[in-house]
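pinned: reference chain
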Amino acid sequence: MAINRIDVDALKKHIDVGKTILVPNLRTKDAALFQILDEHKEFISPTPKIFPIDVFIQKLWELNARTGTSDCSSFRIMSSEEESLIWESIIEAYLKSTPLLNITETSAIVSRSYQLTRQWISNRALNDELTSGFIKKDIVTYSTWVKEFQNSCRNNSLISLVDAIESLISLIHRQEVRGLPE
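pinned: its structure tokens
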């Protein structure tokens, strides 16, 4: 008995004409592929172009880095492990002024906060919030950590995935993206 996790019928018309499908994660990609290929009548068929969004962004970044697109060729998208290590090193440096019980957990929370902030709050709105008269020590500390994270990334020619997305959006608006991954 087959378990259908995804309504692939809605995707088939797009897959049949060779369009790229972006999904939230690798597990969703695998589920969609298994379901599509399980329903396929032919013994051999081309694999549909289904990518987890983070893999697609990474491939798009690398493709445009090879073609010399300035933003993409100047920085490398860091892995989640590299990002965690940078956050941990920044937070460890503040242990004397900001006592913490669990550095690893704090760095994970700060990293996730950074990702959500970059995704959902514009730079202008964030700066307005941080420069408002009502500022708490936690906000000042977070803002300092973010600046140090961004400086560390810039100094090491690294970029986080969430910052790469913002850069790619800007490149797309300027029509400077030189191709899409296969």
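why pinned: The first helix runs from residue 9 to 16. The radius of gyration is 21 Å.
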